[in-house]
Adenylate kinase
Amino acid sequence: MNLILMGLPGAGKGTQAEMIVDHYQVVHVSTGDMFRDAMSQQTPIGLKAKSFIDQGELVPDEVTDAIVKERLSQSDIQQSGYMLDGYPRNLEQAQALTQINQELKQTLDAVIDIQVPTQILIDRLSGRFICRNCGATYHKINHPTKVPGTCDRCGGHEFYQRDDDQPATVKNRLEVNLKMNTPLIDYYQKAGVYHEVDGNQNIDQVFQIIDKILSQLH
């Protein structure tokens, strides 16, 4: 079985990825892992990617696509199938993946998109705050202080948020991701492999929905 896992930051994609891998024994292929593997093995395409990364530049699509093809052609994936995470990121990469699958005689079986309302994602991602005195980290939803406004560790009363945890920054990040995902959703809906999953439930309920979709593909 071959699938793509989609979801905005904070949607719980990482947790569901682990559960899918445990249950279905597919190979979890994340963009970061692919780049690290290709660079550590010093494959020609890995060295090409490294030259861009070392200069602080974005790796061009054609180099990323070549790294994906290199990874998807390896024996573990030929045997067990793949779950792509973080790729494709745009329509051009999605079209390249279709070509890669054809060349490797593979079939993309499903695209699972974990959807959570944007405001809930903003609350999840911007909920972190830090004690200015001792650096203890809290979250307004998942890990609040025991006494409101008082640090559990040092008793301090001053807290702050990092810039990238500020609601406005988080909202902007989500909007950028949403914009990138929209053409992908359209592309895979037309291909008949797109499945939207309500991620605004507990972890087990979300996985039950995913499991129901994937079990029908076997």
Summary: DSSP finds nine helices and eight strands in the chain.
